[in-house]
Design goal:
Belongs to the V-ATPase F subunit family. The protein is an alpha/beta fold and 121 residues long. It has six helices and four strands. A four-stranded parallel beta sheet has the order 2-1-3-4, with helices on both faces.
Length: 121
């Protein structure tokens, strides 16, 4: 079965609780090069490592969606905001300790810019 027939993966970048939750839900995979589709961030993780993981997930052709905890996306906001591809789609999600803030979500800000208030009347 080819990747096209099998579909694309969801990648996750987040704290341990967030990533483990998705792994328990069956999201975890290794590609042929044995690279996982998840990246755990803790207090010792360098911003450059997060940035590199995000960029690698963006380049992989087997990934369709990248879920990133919003507080971690804030750490690499300049990279997330400069990403403009449709696939993989980047979605910012809340984590246990940090609630979701729609004002910080770059995708939502871009989507709002596509519509005027007249479109919703």
């Amino acid at each position: 079965m080819t990747h096209a027939a099998k579909g694309k993966l969801i990648a996750v970048i987040g704290d341990e609780d967030t990533v483990v939750g998705f792994l328990l839900g069956g999201v975890g995979e290794l590609n042929k090069q044995r690279h996982p589709n998840f990246f755990v961030v803790n207090k010792n993780t360098a911003v450059s490592e997060i940035e590199e993981a995000f960029k690698l997930f963006c380049k992989r052709d087997d990934i369709g969606i990248i879920l990133i905890s919003q507080n971690i996306a804030e750490m690499i906001r300049y990279v997330v905001d400069s990403y403009h591809q449709t696939i993989p789609t980047v979605l910012e999600i809340p984590s246990k300790d940090y609630p979701y803030d729609a004002n910080k979500d770059s995708i939502l800000r871009r989507a709002k810019g596509m519509f005027s208030s007249e479109d919703f009347r």
